[in-house]
Design brief:
The complex is a heterodimer. Chain A is mostly helical. Chain A is built from 18 helices and four strands. Chain B is built from two helices and twelve strands, in the order αβαβββββββββββ. The chains are: A mainly alpha, B alpha+beta. Chains A and B meet through α2, α6, α7, α8 and α10 of A and α1, β8, β9, β10 and β12 of B.
Chain lengths: ~575, ~180
């Protein structure tokens, strides 16, 4: 089997790009950014309507815009970008050709057709069913068809990724085990296959229901299986963005994982336990037994939370060790003070790590506790939580990686690097605040997906406390700031692709250059066995633990004041 | 030597752990166990546990049962829509219907007494969000959820629908009085 392709070695990073993979990564990443732009424009409508003093869109338009915003951001933007990441982690990191490029293009085409079909269905009206589209509320058939086509495309892309791993193994482009980042991508991909299968199991009958072929889909069964798709798709994000954290630590600092065994073991815990996610969306539902709720929501004894807590230590830990090796040894935190805070690839990832852990992680565990869930179920606390995970965690990591990819993959000089330096701070920190005030409003009971806090014209209107209005006003302000931060990212990315100075693309060769074998040095042999290698990170981790414990028990205290329920 | 390259040491799984990692894993694991057992502990000693008592139902069946209670225990009507206010004796069964876009009837309870609250939806998913007490429960069509409640504060409470249920979602509010 002869493959006509070429390999280019990037003179700036030393990474080797295969021609087909490079084109596919570009296509997927650029499409992702287009959906981010679309979702960002829709976010303006959402934010300016929920800001009580502005209350911009009328109700029907608001629910329509919110439906499209959820789908474009949570599904289309992240998954298109993740496909690019999967190709990068296989073909580029393993220095091999991409398996079956034609099928990869088919996957891309299906995903694009599906995403467009779904969007068109929402804009036509009659499909303002929110991303969750709970039956028996029905959308147009093309709404479900679009999602199904997209899912099939994404599934095919996952198998192209697996195929590429086989190619690398067979062509012996590397020796030993795959890099940790590739291992993380494999984790993401395995979770993706499970996720997409769940989506198919529930969306295909719902599509048939919308066509009138079958006459009933059970609402509770729908909720259970839909969330195996809806939440697990966010677990793909977690595995993908944690891989990116490790990658950026490696790229920026030359950091190696503190221990391969620990980091890979933590990814393995994700594969084994993250799939139980559908349960924690059903904690306040009828029908499920207490035992089922407790075992599943805790992802079986919180093993997946344990995994995230491990990554939360080992990524900054790896950076600390690398920095200390460079001589930044003074005190606990010189390594952190002397980090390249002006490099948006690093600052984006670091803001992402802290925000994902402190805001997304702690709130996620609180929500996922069986009884505590009743405090915040379906309030704006929920979007507060997942904006911390998906926007601060995933989106900000993807943005940070993009700044690295502009010269390396797209071969362009970044326009306006001065602005890029500030972008992660503006976007990340305004999202921190956005999430905090949203969770604050949610704790006061403010519902999510709700057009009118004032219940104007309603006979038995409920009057929210003034603090709820204040919080929702702050949500509006922080949201606008974050949208400006997002717009700057799109301006820099698209602008660099269009007008950035073209850079030398590097040597092309017809055959891949295998990854040279690195001999285990004495440093490698003794590494990590020296004792307490990352004390600064350990202190940060303890600060995290204390916040976690306090917040967790404050919520139990709050719960204990509620009406008796049994 | 980095996370984007194959591990330099072929037998990486035999590599010793740094004490930072080992200590943290132990601490995190203990904390995970505490959180896991906290849920079980609360079932034994806590007062706020969501009932799992659920029956399959249909809108007709549920409406019939609800109507029987309304006929027997209505003490007055309120608003222009003459929504009945239902006060069942302590320990009794009371029915709350969620439909597009209202909750009915209005319920009246006595503080410190226990009631069996039956809830279902006649159409789409709805949300039972008791404010300002802040208890949030999902209402799923086809399923009758029986929650045993003991109000611990008196006053006027609102039931806000917090599951999106279409264009009138934001007008869907019910009421509960606690004497």
């Amino acid at each position: 089997m002869s493959q006509t392709t070429t390999y280019r070695t990037c003179p700036r990073s030393g990474l080797q790009f295969e021609a087909n993979a490079e084109k596919l990564m570009t296509a997927n990443a650029v499409t992702a950014v287009v959906f981010l732009l679309l979702g960002g424009i829709l976010a303006i409508g959402v934010v300016l309507t929920r800001w009580p003093a502005v209350h911009w869109l009328e109700a029907g338009r608001f629910y329509q815009v919110l439906t499209a915003h959820g789908l474009d951001m949570l599904i289309f933007w992240v998954i298109f970008f993740e496909i690019a990441v999967l190709y990068f982690c296989s073909s580029t990191l393993l220095r091999c050709r991409l398996a079956t490029p034609k099928i990869a293009w088919l996957a891309f085409a299906l995903m694009l057709i599906g995403a467009v079909t779904n969007n068109v269905a929402v804009y036509q009206g009659g499909s303002s069913v929110m991303m969750t589209s709970y039956v028996p509320m029905m959308a147009a058939p093309s709404f479900y068809l679009g999602l199904i086509l997209f899912a099939v495309g994404a599934l095919i892309a996952c198998f192209v990724f697996f195929g590429t791993l086989v190619v690398a193994k067979r062509d012996q482009t590397y020796q030993g085990s795959v890099p940790l980042v590739t291992f993380g991508a494999i984790t993401a991909c395995i979770i993706a296959v499970f996720t997409i299968a769940s989506g198919a199991i529930i969306l295909i009958p719902t599509y048939l229901l919308s066509l009138g072929v079958i006459d009933r889909v059970d609402p509770l069964v729908y909720r259970t299986i839909w969330w195996a798709f809806g939440h697990s798709s966010q677990q793909i994000n977690v595995a993908a963005h944690i891989s990116i954290w490790y990658a950026v630590a490696a790229i920026t600092f030359g950091a190696k994982p503190m221990s391969e065994r620990v980091s890979r073991g933590a990814f393995l815990l994700y594969i084994l336990f993250l799939q139980l996610a559908s349960a924690h969306h059903l904690l306040s539902d009828p029908g499920m037994s207490t035992e089922w709720k407790i075992v599943n929501t805790s992802y079986f004894m919180y093993f997946a939370v344990l995994a995230s807590m491990i990554h939360g230590l080992t990524v900054p830990g790896a950076i600390e060790v690398a920095q200390r090796a460079k001589g930044y040894n003074k005190g606990l935190f010189e390594w952190l003070r002397k980090a390249p805070w002006g490099n948006p690839t690093f600052s984006g990832v670091f803001i992402s790590i802290i925000g994902f852990g402190f805001l997304g992680g702690i709130s996620g565990v609180m929500m996922g506790t069986e009884q505590l869930n009743m405090l915040i179920h379906n309030t704006v606390y929920v979007p507060g939580h997942f904006h911390a995970t998906v926007v601060i965690g995933t989106t900000l990591s993807f943005m940070a990686l993009t700044y690295f990819l502009i010269p390396v993959l797209f071969k362009r000089e970044m326009i306006n690097p001065g602005l890029a330096k500030w972008q992660p701070y503006l976007f990340g920190l305004s999202m921190y605040f956005f999430c905090l005030v949203m969770m604050g409003a949610g704790t006061l009971g403010v519902p999510r997906r709700h057009w009118d806090l004032s219940f104007s014209g309603v006979a038995m209107a409920y009057e929210w406390p003034g603090a709820a209005y204040l919080m929702m006003g702050l949500v509006g302000i922080a949201g606008v700031a974050a949208i400006i931060g997002g717009a700057i990212y799109i301006y820099i990315t698209v602008g660099s692709l269009l007008w950035g100075k073209r850079l030398d693309q590097g040597e092309r060769s017809p055959a891949p250059t295998p990854i040279p074998l690195t001999a285990p040095t004495a440093a490698v042999q003794t590494y990590g066995s020296t004792g307490f290698a990352a004390p600064g990170t350990f202190v940060l981790a303890l600060v995290f633990l204390v916040s976690f414990v306090l917040y967790y028990f404050i919520n139990w205290k709050y719960l204990s004041t509620l009406w008796g329920l049994s | 030597m980095s996370a984007i390259l194959p591990p330099a040491e072929r037998l990486w799984w035999k590599h010793p752990l740094d004490r930072v990692e080992g200590t943290w894993i132990a601490i995190a694991f203990v904390w995970c166990l505490v959180m896991f057992f906290m849920m079980i502990y609360w079932h034994a000693y806590g007062q706020q546990n969501l009932s799992t008592e659920t029956y399959k139902t249909t809108p007709e069946l549920f409406a019939k049962k609800a109507q029987a209670v309304i006929d027997k225990y209505t003490i007055r009507t309120e608003t222009d829509g003459h929504i009945p206010v239902v006060a069942v004796p302590p320990g009794g069964d009371v029915y709350l219907i969620a439909r597009l876009w209202n909750f009915s009837p209005i319920l009246e309870f006595e503080k410190g007494q226990t009631y069996r609250l039956h809830m279902t939806s006649m159409d789409y998913n709805h949300g039972f969000s008791l404010q300002p007490a802040n208890i949030n429960i999902q209402i799923v069509p086809g399923y009758e959820h029986v929650v045993t409640i003991t109000p611990n504060q008196s006053g006027t409470f609102s039931v806000v629908c917090n599951e999106y249920c279409g264009i009138g979602h934001h007008t869907m509010v019910g009421r509960i009085y606690v004497k």
